[in-house]
Structure formats: structure tokens, C-alpha cells
Write a structure and sequence with these properties.
Strand order of the largest sheet: 1-2
Number of helices: 10
Distance between the termini: 48 Å
Shape: globular
Helix content: 55-70%
Largest sheet: 2 strands, antiparallel
Number of domains: 1
Radius of gyration: 19 Å
Bound molecules: S-adenosylmethionine
Structural class: mainly alpha
Number of strands: 2
Strand content: under 5%
């Protein structure tokens, strides 16, 4: 691909990501969009669960496989490195749309909160998504979504891998993006069976995916990431929850 074509491809992939991200917020919140998590024709319980689990598994597999360094090394024999991340983002966004449109509704209510409590839950829903969005800027938003790589290539600059960061939310937890997702996924004033299935499966997937991500981060950043892992909790601010993996050779006081 030429440099300009790569940049256009990455930009298009970013626009599709933005559309899928906004759609997913409205889909989960049950507002503004034609198809939401609880809308659509009724299906038998077993069929709905199987279809929904298959959709979530496709998304999880794409994310976990395509994000691994070994896969990237193999994959970049066929896809040019400056658009590798944009291709990951495009695949993830299309699968997110597939979840939104393919999801079989299971609208029976599991729990419901009303009045001021519902307002609090909506505020948590908004806070979760805001944490996700802000956290992407605290690491590197444009790197995460593949634009920085294509931009550097278009300008003829050498690509440099960004270092891991410990600023802002990353001072309090190591995975604020995933924390934001978990808050948003569980914050539903009316929790349906389908929404509960979605929240439970995605939370379980996040906990597994974080083990894989941290294993890669440890390999890439070595002792400095091991030290960060010892000092900063994984997901819950103030709660030191040790991840499994290589213990750090460095001793640090808890803080
Ligand atoms: C979808 S982001 C999720 C980041 C993090 N797990 C979170 O929940 O905030 C995944 C990318 O973030 C990168 N990453 C994770 N922690 C990071 C940190 N502290 N600083 C910079 N990049 C980080 C990983 O290398 C990976 O490419």
C-alpha cells in the first residue's frame, strides 16, 4: 500500500471504530438506536444463549489472537506493519457491530431499580464509558486505534513503540479501560437476562485477557513493569490484587 492509501485505510478504520463504539453505548443503554441489547424478535432460550455466546467468543478470539506479539510477527508478513493495528481495529469494530446486530434478545427482567437509584446507575453507566475514553488518551489514543502508526509511515518517520505509562488513572489501577468497561456493562437500571449474560461473559473474558496482556507487557518492559505490577492494583483502586505470573526480582513497598 502507498503511504497515503495506508493513512486513508487507517482513518477509515478509525471512523468505523468510532461508529461501532458509539453504537455499542446506545445498544447497551437501550436508547437512540433501532437495535438494542433487549430488542428484536424473541428466540428460544437455548438458541439465544448459543448465538450470543458464539458472537462473544468470535470477538474474544479475534482480540486475544490478533493482539499477541507472535501473531503480529506472522501476520505482518502479509499485512504491512503500519496498518497492522488499523486492521486489528477494523476487525474488532466489525465484530462489535456483529454483536450489536446479531444479538438475540433475552428481555426478561432480573432486577430493576427506580427513582433516584436509577439515576445513580445511569451516572455509573456514563462514568464507565467516560473512564474508557479518557484512559485511551492517557496511554496513547491514536496508537491504540492504529492512526499513529499510519501517520508516521505517511510522513516517512521511523516508528517507535510507546513505553508503558503510569500517569492519571494508571496511577490507581493498571487497567482503567477494562475497569471502565466492567462498570458500564454492569450499570443497568433494568437488568435483563440478556444483559446479565453479556456482563458476566465479558467480565470473565476481561479477567482472562488481562492475564495474557500482562504476560506480554512483562516480556516487553521487564523489571519496570514488574515493579509497576507490585505497586499498583489491577482493577480496583486501593485493593492490592496480585496477578499470577513471574514475580518481580525487585522489592518495593506497597503504596
Ligand atoms: C485495549 S488497551 C487496554 C489497556 C489496559 N489493559 C487498560 O485496561 O487500561 C491494550 C493496549 O494497551 C497497552 N497497555 C496496557 N497497559 C499500558 C500502560 N500502562 N501504558 C501503556 N500502554 C499500556 C497494551 O500494550 C496494549 O497494546
Amino acid at each position: 500500500m502507498t503511504r497515503i492509501a495506508s493513512l486513508l485505510y487507517a482513518s477509515l478504520s478509525y471512523v468505523i471504530f468510532l461508529a461501532s463504539f458509539l453504537y455499542a453505548i446506545a445498544w447497551l443503554g437501550g436508547f437512540l438506536v433501532p437495535k438494542t441489547i433487549d430488542s428484536g424478535p424473541a428466540s428460544p432460550l437455548a438458541a439465544a444463549v448459543i448465538v450470543n455466546l458464539l458472537l462473544l467468543t468470535a470477538f474474544a478470539l479475534q482480540h486475544s489472537v490478533m493482539a499477541r506479539p507472535g501473531f503480529k510477527r506472522w501476520w505482518t508478513q502479509f499485512v504491512s506493519p503500519p496498518i497492522e493495528r488499523a486492521t486489528f481495529v477494523l476487525a474488532a469494530s466489525l465484530l462489535l457491530f456483529a454483536i450489536c446486530f446479531g444479538w438475540r434478545a433475552l428481555p426478561e427482567t432480573v432486577w430493576q431499580v427506580q427513582g433516584p437509584a436509577a439515576t445513580v446507575v445511569w451516572a455509573l453507566f456514563a462514568t464507565g464509558w467516560l473512564i474508557v475514553l479518557l484512559s485511551t488518551f492517557m496511554i496513547s489514543h491514536f496508537e491504540l486505534f492504529g492512526l499513529r502508526q499510519a501517520w508516521l509511515h505517511a510522513r516517512g518517520r521511523v516508528y517507535t513503540t510507546p513505553d508503558y505509562v503510569e500517569r492519571f488513572f494508571y496511577r490507581f489501577v493498571r487497567h482503567p479501560i477494562m475497569l471502565g468497561f466492567i462498570i458500564a456493562f454492569w450499570s443497568a437500571p433494568t437488568m435483563s437476562v440478556g444483559h446479565l449474560l453479556f456482563a458476566a461473559v465479558t467480565t470473565a473474558y476481561i479477567l482472562v485477557a488481562l492475564q495474557l496482556e500482562e504476560r506480554d507487557l512483562l516480556k516487553e518492559h521487564g523489571a519496570s513493569y514488574a515493579s509497576y505490577r507490585e505497586r499498583v492494583p489491577m482493577l480496583v483502586p486501593g485493593l492490592k490484587w496480585k496477578s499470577r505470573g513471574t514475580p518481580s526480582p525487585i522489592r518495593h513497598s506497597e503504596g
